[in-house]
């Protein structure tokens, strides 16, 4: 493949639409399946088409209309490539895609973008993925039925129009699961990968949505939780600083004292002496 970051076993297919298709139908232009590294990046002012993508593995960041979107596994993308746009793989990524156009494409895109942006958390939406796979099979075998392809493109647009984007709700649920996990396991060593696994997201994507929702990184949240637990123990118990260190999930007294002082401007002993 010519594109930087696109691996050699990727597939790309071309279709030249008929004049009838261009005037009367939604019509295909290019399609394919890409396997990419994090070097993959497309930055264009205009590409005279619209784009559907189904991310099957990995993560893609999209910049469009001064906004940033992230599509990860089982996310569907609808992008207007007539306007400036950029999308890039954040890690090893696999996705099916096709470029298309048609007289009603612009109206559909504007309506859907205002409602949901350009990324849809589709889980395993059978109709969307089935239509996309059938279109890819047509182009791969060079047996494109333009009327059937137009119907399937319209079906995808219809499904997206009926879709209610639960992405934020899904993200909030994932983050709640992680915060509950921290509540029960803060005394143990916890790594970013552990939290991402609980959220069922890639570490990169999890870090981004956590910071967006919580205004701090996952690591900062974990440290804050441990510090708050230490404060309670200092105020309500007679446990030694060493005992509180390990009871709060820190692996050494010196590390605990350093972090505690950084967050409170006080040593644990001085904090304990405060009269509330």
From TrEMBL:
<protein>
    <submittedName>
        <fullName>AraC family transcriptional regulator</fullName>
    </submittedName>
</protein>
<dbReference type="InterPro" id="IPR003313">
    <property type="entry name" value="AraC-bd"/>
</dbReference>
<feature type="domain" description="HTH araC/xylS-type">
    <location>
        <begin position="176"/>
        <end position="274"/>
    </location>
</feature>
<dbReference type="Pfam" id="PF02311">
    <property type="entry name" value="AraC_binding"/>
</dbReference>
<keyword id="KW-0238">DNA-binding</keyword>
<dbReference type="GO" id="GO:0043565">
    <property type="term" value="F:sequence-specific DNA binding"/>
</dbReference>
<dbReference type="GO" id="GO:0003700">
    <property type="term" value="F:DNA-binding transcription factor activity"/>
</dbReference>
<dbReference type="InterPro" id="IPR018060">
    <property type="entry name" value="HTH_AraC"/>
</dbReference>
<keyword id="KW-0804">Transcription</keyword>
<keyword id="KW-0805">Transcription regulation</keyword>
<dbReference type="InterPro" id="IPR009057">
    <property type="entry name" value="Homeodomain-like_sf"/>
</dbReference>
<dbReference type="InterPro" id="IPR018062">
    <property type="entry name" value="HTH_AraC-typ_CS"/>
</dbReference>
<dbReference type="InterPro" id="IPR020449">
    <property type="entry name" value="Tscrpt_reg_AraC-type_HTH"/>
</dbReference>
<dbReference type="Pfam" id="PF12833">
    <property type="entry name" value="HTH_18"/>
</dbReference>
<dbReference type="InterPro" id="IPR037923">
    <property type="entry name" value="HTH-like"/>
</dbReference>
């Amino acid at each position: 493949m010519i594109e930087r970051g696109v691996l050699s076993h990727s597939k790309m297919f071309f279709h030249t639409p008929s004049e009838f298709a261009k005037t009367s139908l939604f019509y295909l232009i290019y399609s394919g399946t890409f396997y990419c590294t994090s070097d993959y990046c497309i930055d264009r002012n205009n590409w005279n088409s619209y784009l559907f993508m189904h991310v099957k593995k990995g993560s893609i960041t999209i910049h469009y209309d001064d906004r940033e979107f992230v599509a990860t596994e089982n996310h569907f993308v609808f992008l207007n490539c007539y306007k400036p746009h950029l999308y890039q793989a954040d890690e090893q990524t696999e996705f099916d895609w096709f470029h298309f156009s048609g007289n009603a494409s612009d109206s559909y895109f504007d309506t859907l973008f205002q409602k949901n942006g350009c990324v849809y958390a589709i889980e395993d939406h059978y109709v969307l993925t089935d239509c996309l796979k059938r279109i890819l099979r047509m182009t791969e075998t060079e047996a494109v039925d333009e009327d059937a392809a137009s119907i399937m493109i319209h079906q995808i647009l219809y499904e997206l129009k009926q879709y209610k984007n639960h992405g934020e709700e899904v993200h909030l649920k994932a983050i709640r699961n992680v915060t509950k996990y921290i509540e029960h396991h803060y005394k143990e060593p916890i790594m970013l990968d552990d939290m991402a696994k609980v959220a069922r997201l890639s570490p990169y994507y999890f870090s981004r949505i956590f910071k967006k929702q919580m205004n701090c990184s996952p690591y900062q949240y974990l440290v804050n939780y441990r510090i708050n637990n230490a404060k309670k123990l200092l105020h309500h118990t007679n446990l030694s600083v060493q005992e509180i260190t390990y009871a709060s999930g820190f692996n050494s007294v010196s590390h605990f004292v350093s972090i505690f002082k950084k967050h409170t401007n006080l040593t644990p002993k001085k904090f304990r002496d405060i009269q509330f």
